[in-house]
Design goal:
This protein has about 625 residues and is α/β, with parallel strands linked by helices. The chain has 24 helices and 23 strands. Strand 22, helix 23 and strand 23 form a beta-alpha-beta unit.
């Protein structure tokens, strides 16, 4: 109801949802709704008031029914990643355990700098019914609750105790989610009583608003300094991170590299910045990288790090580079641009690469340096071609491996199909062995290395993909460990008609951690099912039957050749298809391409193997840069 010609009386929940429905964004000249809808599981903390508001806006903001709050958050993160952080979805959970389940996914979004709006129930502001169901009581601080924990994993946090507060809080939350530097999850705690309280909101609050992502131009002096340093380089290298894609700067990256003859290596988040056959693409760098990228990284004298936060898997825990190498940090975030005493160029990658290119003029790196990098890449390509093959050089069949499965799917997929993987051994195997067919088509979640993201993230990516590329597929690679942690969004994908192709590679447990355990001298223990002493009677899970029970189509295959045929059938199916193949937990890992990674090992042990492994591991520490 309208209280006067300038205001409207609404509940807090109604005002929040109405405000979200009025927010739009301009992307490449097209104006579309900023919020793509949301994921929700109702409970007493959100069903009556937020639920009523969602219902009244179900056409503008479709609400997807989740199976698990954590997986809802993963799906929202994948949706935002697909849309290059230009659109987001909300997640709504009930007070107490429902909201607590979102903590891990909020941390994932925070680590990956992805926008996500969390609208979560909270205890009553009046405290009249105190204590209430699912409330954690802190005797010395009655205002403290589960929701306060989200302060550590969100970029924006607020608890609404009066309806008027959302007039300031909602714009601030959206501004945070759209800010290239501060981007991340926004949390709004909504006490159950406050959700239903009314207020006379100004009508202007609900007028259509069109947002645009801010592009920050770098300081010209920083650009000049970076250009002067690059001109001195005999062996320059570009590290291209995920920020290149978020800036929409892939064409600028390619043009910059070509004009100035500088080889490019990709981070995990930056995979698919360049096509596989681009002559300037020298491969992925770091712990899960390639011999080619790591070979030039250790020789480079000036490193231009574009849109990367330089996490330890990229830098080999800061052993991947020469001690005297100079780093230029080109990043929209000051925090990232300054890492390890880098020379900062703080600004948007698309603008900054153009300006830096202009400052360099016609300068190009020595031609023999690029030839060396390309020769290294050619050797790496030969290794990958052999690594993904099921047949050894002597003609014998190799044990089934992740790499073979990846190579098989890679050879048969369409160029715009999206690949999703996370945690376990698959991020390393996909990063090293996947050959990019189209820009921006690889989502390897390794910012938070979160098991369980795969299928949920695939669902969220498919929701986003169906908005723009409905004829393309979303392909999920997952191990048996991650599948068992979180698989219920197979059911979600069937319910919503968002087809996935899920490849389950069963190695009998947490095999990659077993590999780390063995590599550090430890005996296999509690990772593979066969090596778990508390397991009374090991047995194999029938993943295909399980997937079928959730409504998916499913097949079991024995080898990569059968996997290829099953994948062809999956491409023609009209709903989610799960393909299961056993892989060897010990053989077939990608053995090349790795950089050193700092891992805490026992300094003393009764095991000679553990002690020897510790000494060997620590022997590489002499190469570790002592930056800030």
């Amino acid at each position: 109801m309208t209280s006067d010609q300038h205001s409207i009386t609404l509940t807090t929940a109604q005002a929040i949802v109405r405000y979200l429905a009025a927010q739009f964004i301009e992307i490449d000249g097209e104006t579309i709704r900023l919020c793509g809808g949301g994921f929700g599981i109702f409970g007493h903390g959100n069903v009556t008031c937020l639920g009523e508001a969602f219902y009244n806006h179900r056409e503008e903001l479709p609400l997807y029914r989740g199976q698990n709050e954590q997986s809802m958050g993963f799906a929202a993160a994948a949706y935002a990643k697909y849309h290059l952080r230009q659109r987001f979805m909300f997640c709504s959970a009930s007070a107490g355990p429902g909201t607590a389940n979102l903590f891990t996914s909020a941390a994932l979004a925070h680590a990956n700098r992805l926008p996500m709006l969390l609208l979560c129930g909270d205890a009553y502001a009046t405290r009249l019914p105190d204590p209430v169901l699912q409330q954690l009581e802190h005797f010395g601080n009655p205002s403290l609750g589960v929701n306060d924990g989200f302060k550590s994993v969100c970029r924006f946090w607020d608890r609404i105790t009066h309806p008027a507060q959302i007039i300031q809080s909602l714009p601030a939350a959206i501004a945070t989610m759209l800010d290239p530097t501060d981007c991340g999850p926004a949390f709004i705690g909504l006490p159950q009583d406050v959700q239903g309280w009314i207020f006379d909101y100004p009508l202007s609050m609900f007028e259509k608003r069109v947002h645009r992502i801010r592009r920050q131009e770098p300081d010209k002096r920083e650009v000049v300094d970076a250009a002067e340093l690059l001109k001195t380089a005999k062996r320059p290298m570009i590290i291209a991170g995920g920020g290149v894609q978020y800036s929409g700067a892939t064409s600028e990256l390619k043009a910059f590299a070509e004009k100035h003859s500088i080889p490019v290596v990709e981070t995990i988040a930056g995979r698919a910045n360049l096509l596989n056959d681009d002559p300037f693409n020298i491969g992925p760098i770091g712990v899960t990288g390639s011999n080619s990228a790591n070979a030039i990284a250790e020789k480079a004298d000036v490193i231009l790090a574009v849109g990367t936060r330089l996490q330890d898997f990229t830098t080999g825990s800061w052993t991947a580079f020469a001690m005297d190498a100079k780093i230029i940090g080109l990043n929209v975030g000051r925090h990232d641009a300054l890492k390890h005493m880098s020379m900062p160029v703080v600004g948007d990658a698309k603008l900054a690469l153009k300006l830096l290119g202009e400052a360099l003029g016609d300068h190009a790196a020595p031609g023999d340096w690029l030839k060396l990098a390309q020769a290294e890449r050619a050797k790496w390509d030969s290794y990958v071609a052999d690594n993904v093959s099921a047949v050894a050089e002597d003609g014998s069949n190799r044990p089934n491996s992740y790499a073979q499965a990846i190579g098989t799917i890679n050879a048969l997929c369409e160029k715009n199909d999206r690949v999703v993987a996370a945690a376990g051994g698959l991020p390393a195997e996909v990063t090293a062995n996947w050959r990019t067919l189209e820009l921006g088509t690889v989502d390897v979640e390794f910012g938070f290395s979160c098991m369980g993201y795969e299928i949920a993230g695939g669902w969220g990516a498919r929701i986003a993909q169906s908005e723009k590329e409905p004829d393309q597929d979303t392909i999920v690679f997952t191990g048996d460990g991650s599948y068992l942690m979180l698989n219920s969004d197979i059911y979600s994908s069937v319910l919503t008609g968002k087809k996935l192709i899920v490849v389950v590679l069963d190695n009998g447990g947490f095999a990659v951690i077993n590999k780390l355990q063995n590599n550090t001298g430890n005996e296999s223990f509690n990772n593979l099912i066969a090596d778990t002493p508390t397991v009374d009677a090991p047995f194999a899970v029938d993943f295909a039957a399980h997937a079928e029970a959730m409504g998916a189509l499913a097949e079991r295959v024995e080898n990569p050749a059968e996997l290829g045929e099953a994948f062809k059938r999956a491409k023609t199916n009209d709903k989610t298809t799960v393909i299961v193949m056993k892989v060897d937990p010990y053989e077939g890992w990608t053995t090349e391409g790795h950089a050193w990674w700092e891992c805490g090992t026992p300094h003393i042990s009764t095991s000679e193997k553990v002690t020897a492994a510790h000494e060997d591991w620590e022997s590489s520490r002499v190469r570790q840069r002592k930056g800030i």
